[in-house]
Specification:
Structural class of chain A: alpha+beta
Largest sheet of chain A: 6 strands, mixed
Shape of chain A: elongated
Helix content of chain A: 10-25%
Distance between the termini of chain B: 30 Å
Oligomer: heterodimer
Number of strands of chain B: 0
Structural class of chain B: mainly alpha
Number of strands of chain A: 20
Shape of chain B: globular
Largest interface: A-B, 33 and 24 residues
């Protein structure tokens, strides 16, 4: 196990900078997920940790050693690639042996490790097969097995589940979680799937355009998003964002007014332009007009089984509400909705930063 | 797909027969002539049934050290093939992997060497080899043939290396391997069909080459192709020996191509990524 530190790490391709001076501390045994949309720099960051990309500027350490100039093979990392990258001319056993050979182990030790790992991942019966004879899920497990046999200090995963179908993805996700509990190895895991991030991570690093937007536990990034990007990126369906102006303890928006909760007092200025966010599950239909935050027209309702998603129109803006399916109103009717003030997130309209953290 | 009709099937077989006749007739003439006693060799119409004789084969080896010339040909052809595959695939790997805006120019420059008419440099080569003492040695031919074979190998192998997914090499790099070992254990085995194709082309070119071998070798390093033609003189053309020698020359090429054929399989990288 090793810790990893990134200090002001920059990645440039020619004159184009794709990762802009990021700082990140990963403790020993921690499961860290780099999460973000395509092109946010998460895979580039992972590849810099692996040593597959040079660090253009800044300092990258694994354990207590600066590894900027250390070759991938000497970093004590193992990596599971998005496309698995199994050696096609070798059997499953040979794939694992090939990964072990540079460690110069005894034949008996290397056999023991292969047997153990194969048993752990359910590969025992596949050892004599070649990658072309395996299904996608099996290849994925072989890729993990090949990384696992080396008992690395750090485990790197590059979107390992993105080529699997939905059911298999859930299953392998659970397996990866169990594996981490059992081995306790430091893991850095890249994904664009927030469900993977929320379920697996000890710590989520949310990235956008080569910057880190927020680092925190799954609960933190969900309940205390640092800015409007994180707020809308985490959670499905996405948080509703509404433009408003602070006026006498109330947020005045287009055809709606919301009272500002006590905890924001002193953090907002009169007349300040803000964006407030409310999660779809915090918008509820009320029958009492006194409790109503706004009148909303139900444009479309989407039935999902337990819940239904309502596409609401309030003034010129569209919002999504998540209600129990049993209470789903008819389409094209006007209903009274209430925004739970305790669940309100308020962001400065200019900077996008949460006023909670200012 | 519809089953082809009878007429189409017949047409296909007729075309195949024509192609086979065109390609196999010369070989038949070589083989049959080499086995015919001299008096009936040019009989008209050609004798289809005759008592075969090995006299031309025996006299071929008695008249000149033909075994040695075959050996020279083998040394030169295998030597140049090995030399070209070694340097050609290393160069191709570099061209395939190094990202540089001028890399295409380098690749084209290498290819352009093949466009040069080789006969133009026979005299300079003669002078160089005479000065270096390489005249009439197999090494001289190995060097010359390699200058033609390496560009071909580079271009063929570059295409095959381009097809090997870089993720495999990255995986090996993380698994603890350096550049040369990655090349040897991962990249090269996956480009084996390319090696086989290159080997066939290099071998056949070197084995068949005549002009350089004629001009730059004497009794010591003479190759089989040149030796066969030595039976063609202004006084007499010894057809029996020429035919026997020609038939023997055909054999190693066929064996070599058949040996390489088993590597000419597609889909070696299947199952590696995705």
């Amino acid at each position: 196990m090793s810790s990893i530190q990134l200090r002001n790490v920059v990645k440039r391709y020619g004159s184009v900078e794709v990762v802009h001076g990021i700082d990140l501390d990963i403790s020993e045994g921690e499961f860290v997920v780099l999460l973000g949309p395509s092109g946010c720099g998460k895979t580039t960051t992972l590849r810099m940790i692996a040593g597959l990309e040079d660090v253009s500027d800044g300092e990258l350490s694994i354990g207590s050693t600066v590894v900027n100039a250390v070759a991938p093979k000497d970093r004590g990392v193992a990596m599971v690639f998005q496309n698995y990258a199994l050696y096609p001319h070798m059997t499953v056993r040979q794939n694992m042996e090939f990964a072990l050979r540079p460690l110069k182990l005894d034949k008996s030790e290397s056999d023991r490790r292969i047997t153990e790992t194969a048993a752990l991942l359910g590969l025992d019966k596949l050892l004599a097969r070649q990658p072309a004879q395996l299904s996608g899920g099996q290849r994925q497990r072989v890729a993990m097995g090949r990384a696992l046999v080396r008992t690395p200090e750090v485990f790197l995963f590059d979107e390992p589940l993105s080529n699997l179908d939905a059911k298999l993805r859930t299953q392998v996700r659970l397996e990866i979680g169990k594996l981490h509990k059992r081995l306790g190895t430091t893991i850095v895991y890249v994904t664009h799937d927030q469900v993977e991030a929320m379920t697996l991570a000890d710590k989520i690093v949310i990235m956008q355009d080569g910057h880190i937007e927020q680092i925190g536990s799954p609960q933190e990034v969900f309940t205390k998003p640092r800015n409007s990007f994180v707020a809308t990126f985490i959670g499905s369906p996405a948080m509703n964002m509404v433009e408003a102006i602070v006026n006498d303890g109330t947020l005045i928006g287009d055809h709606l007014n919301v009272g500002i909760p006590e905890r924001f007092s002193g953090r907002l200025e009169e007349g300040q332009k803000v964006i407030f966010g409310i999660r779809p599950s915090e918008i509820v239909q009320v029958s009492d007009a006194k409790q109503s935050t706004a009148k909303a027209r139900v444009e479309v309702s989407e039935y999902l089984g337990d819940e239904a998603l309502l596409d609401l129109r309030i003034g010129s803006q569209e919002l999504i509400a998540e209600v129990p399916a049993s209470q789903c109103p008819a389409e094209d009717v006007e209903i009274d909705v209430h925004f739970n003030p305790q669940a309100l997130h308020i962001f400065d309209a200019k900077t996008g930063l949460s006023v909670d953290i200012q | 797909m519809n089953r082809p009709g009878t007429q189409q099937t017949i047409l296909v077989y007729v075309l195949l027969a024509i192609v086979l006749i065109v390609f196999l007739t010369p070989i038949y003439i070589i083989l049959s002539s080499s086995l015919k006693p001299t008096p009936i060799m040019f009989q008209k119409p050609p004798a289809m049934i005759f008592a075969p004789t090995l006299e031309h084969y025996v006299s071929l080896f008695e008249a000149r050290p033909f075994g040695k010339f075959i050996m020279n040909s083998l040394i030169v052809a295998l030597g140049s093939t090995a030399f070209s595959l070694f340097f050609g695939s290393l160069a191709a790997y570099a061209i395939s992997r190094i990202r540089h805006k001028r890399m295409n120019d380098v690749a084209f420059w290498i290819l352009s060497m093949r466009m040069f008419p080789p006969i133009a440099v026979v005299v300079p080569y003669y002078i160089i080899f005479k000065a270096t003492g390489l005249l009439d040695t197999p090494l001289a031919l190995v060097i010359i043939y390699s200058t033609a074979n390496i560009p071909l190998t580079v271009w063929l192998m570059k295409g095959f290396f381009d097809e090997v997914p870089s993720a495999l090499e990255e995986a090996a790099a993380i698994d603890g391997y350096g550049l040369l070992r990655i090349f040897w254990y991962v990249t090269l085995p996956l480009a084996a069909p390319g090696l086989a194709v290159s080997a066939v082309f290099c071998f056949i070119f070197s084995w068949n080459e005549f002009i350089f071998a004629l001009m730059l070798t004497g009794s010591n390093a003479q190759t089989a192709t040149v030796a066969v033609m030595s039976f063609w003189s202004s006084d007499a053309v010894q057809w029996g020996r020429i035919m026997a020698g020609s038939f023997i020359i055909l054999i190693p090429g066929v064996i070599f191509v058949l040996t390489c054929q088993r590597w000419l399989v597609r889909g070696l990288t299947m199952g590696s990524v995705k």
